[in-house]
Amino acid sequence: MAVPSGMVNTAQGKGQVPSASEDATGSFKYTNRLIREKSPYLLMHAHNPVDWYPWGEEAFAKARREQKPIFLSVGYYTCHWCHVMERESFSDPGIAEIMNRSFIAIKVDREERPDVDRIYMSFVQATTGSGGWPMSVFLTPELKPFLGGTYFPKDDNYGRPGFRTVLTRVADAWQKDRDKILRSADQATQALQQYVNADIGETNNLQKAVLDKTYQQIQASYDSTHGGFGAAPKFPRPVVFNFLLRYYARTGQKDALEMTLKTLREMARGGIHDHIGGGFHRYSTDAVWHVPHFEKMLYDQAQLAVSYTEAYQITHDPFFADTARDILEFVLRDMRAPEGGFYSALDADSLIEPGKLEHGEGAFYVWEAKEIEPVLGPDTAAVFDYRYGVERNGNVPAEQDFQGEFKKKNILFERHSLAETAQHFGKPEAAVRATLDAARHKLFAARARRPRPPLDDKVLTAWNGLMISAFARAGEALDDAKYVNAAQTAAQFVQSKLYSTKTGKLTRRYRAGEIAVEGFLDDYAFFIQGLLDLYEASFDVRWLSWAIQLQGMQDQLFWDSKNGGYYTTSGADPALLMQTREDYDGAEPSPNSVATMNLLRLSQMTDRKDWRNKADKAFAVSSPRLEKFPEALPQLVAALDYSLSKPKQIIIAGQPDAADTRAVLRLVYERYIPNKILMVADGGQGQKQLAQWLPFIASVSRKQGRATAYICEDYVCKLPTADPQVVARLLDGKS
Length: 735
Description:
Helix 21 (591-606) runs antiparallel to helix 22 (609-621). The chain is 48% helix and 10% strand. The longest helix is centred in the first third of the chain and has 19 residues, at 178-196. The N and C termini lie far apart (82 Å). By secondary structure, the protein is an alpha+beta fold.
């Protein structure tokens, strides 16, 4: 079969996600130029009959030369509805013929190019009132948007136009009324540029009232029955936990703590948690955390591991420590590259049976009751089914089974507690726990024989930064050197693969030996945070030194010298319509929020007033939203809490690996002390390096030959002490 005109005829490999362009023999009729790309999402479309281009000048030049509109499709590899649109529309030769004739088709991976996604998503949200992926936007040859939406079904349905109809109408309008479209696109672009600069403030006197208002707004949406915030669908949104736990530490407001703990407990017991393999799915489609959207994202694992770790530091309840370990062990097993970096995601969809093309959401994770008993035997299966809510006819309510994929299927969740299960079967809790542990191991082995969910194996600098923070902080609190070592190995991976010593800059993505895309603000901010957390877990001063270097580069590339705060891009790419700024703390924290916290921590670690001033300007530029809708920025409000406090400067004089030093450090790690910096004066090169930034550290030394704690505020220290009981009292704020 000839390759359609303008498409690449190459025999490179197939992507992992089944494509409707693939026939029963595994062969392809078409191959387009996306086959040259490394993004798994782009490769998923490499055998569509659509004449796809990646984002770049080749496509733009063709659109200008032929005066055709651009169809821009943005999504990501683990996006369920992206798969649906690929199968329904982009694999259809008839639709492809319309696209190839009338449009220049561009495909973008939003995780590689969040800059492109952010600009056009702002347009879609402004013009339609909502957003999502796949995102579908029509552009002029000058890249200005004039029509947008998200998922389009292939054909007209329920009075709404299908994708075929939309394509035909846009192509016809482009031929007949192009001037009107161009004027509309100009107006939309101007409105977008104004939107980017809207809500810029300059208030420098933000006070504690902002913290109280944030708490009140979050509390108003709390679901006291099931935990979480708002109605279905429910997202974890760990940035809210970050704020609430800080608010509890500041005020003693127990409701702030209980809202967090209940939500974390309910999530861990729900179907959003993978009870067999560990880790958490993306979100719950219902209000009770039972029926998830099954993809597993690295950024969720990273942030939730931190939330459960902090909950453990506050409560010392092993439940939270165990859940944190559950997440981290899953990541080490299923999401770590052999070289030490962390992969991006596991897909929600997978093949239902080996060797066939039929696939479904959650197919890897769900169980029929009849599948469990042969693995466990009838007696153990009865105990397991009672504990995890397994029913003969399935446990997914019909109203949650939108596509009929879960008939007779069970999504495991903790319907009954361990104590209830033990009582029901008249057995000791310890015996039931051992039975269930063995059962999960057997089901894990059985599940491993199923077709695995496709893996998005690109390594993103930003998300690796979040994961480095998680491993470093859990390694501290859980006293597990394995986790700190995992964080160090990942940092070394980024240093060797995604950092240029020549330019001092980070790159965003690594996959299959290729690095691509200059780093964005989130790559710098999240990775700097990871390095700061890694220093406070390992006390290897090179991580702190590198963080300081990267902060300088971040300031150079992204700082808004006029208003304050950071742009998300450097402004060096002429193809982008504008520089954007991001301050919403959503599924991921805003890079501006994390960057502001980094500035505050670094200013404490180096006594650099310019970084403290930058943090103040970052608060000022976001002041209108902080004063009106702070619930949208809980991570930035957490940074404001740090700014309004007197952070503890904790310096331990001693060898980092010595038993007496570790004993003193345990007193710090076992406590939740959010507003602090932690350093070790090792009496050698590390201490000399620290003293270049904080000269008073040069005189810090052990007393009586033992590891000694210096606990300070504003660089004024209490009397140094080597007595653990005194250290504990000082850490708790007692004299």
